[in-house]
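User: Modeling request: complex.
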Amino acid sequence: MNGEPGACYEDLRVGDEYRSPGRTVTEADIVLFAGLSGDYNALHTDAEHMKASQFGERIAHGLLVLSIQQGLLERGRPVGPPEVLVGIKWRFKGPVKIGDTIHVRGRITAKRDSDKPEWGVVTIERQVVNQLGEVVQEGESEQLVERRAGSRA
Amino acid sequence: MSEIRQFYFEDVEVGRVLETPAMTLTETHVRLFAGLTEQRGDDPRAVPDFLPLCVSSGLGWRVSQPPLVVLAFMSFEWQFLRPTRVGDTIRSVSRTVTKRPVKEVGVVVEARHILNQRDEIVQSGKLTLLVARRPAASAPAARS
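Assistant: Request completed. Predicted assembly structure:
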């Protein structure tokens, strides 16, 4: 644990909403992600090929945007680590191009007990929105959030 | 020069299983990924939840089958079953669950497990991909 106080399970309420800071997705992000993941699909790496595509240019990997989204959402809400993802359902609705600026909207839609007494399960609905207000990715995640010591079930 | 072989919707067989080579996840992966995605973590040996999935997408290119012509990643459902630590060696095993033509393209659903060096499933789910049909003039892709 670091010294930063994060919200515990008890502090989170159904209906709570968060908006993350924005982030501009750059060519460097895409090149770095291609190298890190090993996904060199032409969609992300071949500018000439993509000129003729429906997108007209390279687009960010869907999983890159998903991963950036995770970091942005963590910055935009008070849940401190540790926090553990249980599952996610996700839809990729539109492309993110080089220079697009995205932010994340999150809303807590459910809370329930976990089978581990020191954790609770929180459901968060998430939308990744670009600078035009278009939802480019969206989905719902379940994650374990630590309960406050002393109030554990 | 021979033409680069590609795998199209027509070449996809339901039920076919593909196992990728393995990759050891290092502190370098974790640091790069954390820097790229701004993910905080207190434990430098803990692998961020989405990193194994991202690495599995690249491992999928390193199988004997020619690369599938994926036009778009449409959706996925994913479960995080066990934590992954620096030093773990992961690989993925995937199986085509369904394929269906939609207009001039195709939709393929793949079930994927990510396993560690102890053969434990660490993450698992289903991915839905939009795949190109083979252009009329193109020769069939070779099958292994």
